[in-house]
Amino acid sequence: MQNTKISIIVPCYNQAMYLVDCMQSILNQTHTHWECIIVNDGSSDDTEARAQEWCKKDDRFTYYFKENGGLSSARNYGIQNAIGTFILPLDADDMIAPNYIALALEKFNVQPDLKLVYCKAKKFGEVNGMWQLPDFSPSLLARRNMIFCSAIYRKQDWECVNGYDENMIYGWEDWEFWVAILKDGGNVFCLDEVGFYYRTSKKSMVNQMSDEHKKYLQSFMCQKHPSFFIQHLGSPIQLSETIESITKENKNKLKSEKFVIDLFCKTFLGFTIFGLYKSKKD
Length: 282
Prior knowledge:
The protein folds into two domains: 6-200, Spore Coat Polysaccharide Biosynthesis Protein SpsA, Chain A (Alpha-Beta Complex); 211-281. It is built from eleven helices and nine strands. It has helices at 19-27, 47-57, 71-80, 100-110, 138-141, 155-160, 173-182, 211-224, 226-233, 236-249, 257-281, and strands at 6-12, 34-41, 61-66, 86-89, 95-96, 114-125, 129-130, 153-154, 187-200. Strand 6 and strand 7 (129-130) form a beta hairpin.
């Protein structure tokens, strides 16, 4: 798929200091038929000057400015202006390996039923090492995300779900987007190579998310995709019975933080769906 064009979308909000690493990783791609759209989401730093340097260096880089609207808004803006068949979202502080795009497009070529291709990943920055992500399954996707934002997909799938939901204002916008494009079917493949490098920081959006924000996002996702969560987590009644049974059988496990978190997620999702249906009935 050497002639297949891929659009790399890089939103940037006050992250000018990281652009050189991100842009260089794009320039190093072995698949050369790409465009990179840098979206300045209302930054107050020198993002524009840094981005324009790359546009002068290679005409495959394009720069846009927009008023600050958040990550989903910036990604959507970039994709609206993209001409590639495939889309690769890439945050301005992250990097990709030179062969990531080539390997992903090769996989799409041999498996046309694929909707998403991603890869193994490494963390760098404040935390270093392999990012231990669980294997993908729809049932696990209903409980939590296991695909980072920089998976590759077709632009037409983005169009079919009306893009990233800009109501996901506190984060997890990539999780909601994966649910949206996969809930009606479609295969996912993870490359057996490290192709993505994720910069870790204590100030990241995910690390700063409050419990209140998490509840808001979970509730919003359940209201938007109730059939998906019921299909993979069960009806509210089934969930209540399962949770009661699990609690009785696993009294010792309740001391485990991971077990409690998983149990809470199931309970919250179940009763959010129940509340949605009850409100509609009333």
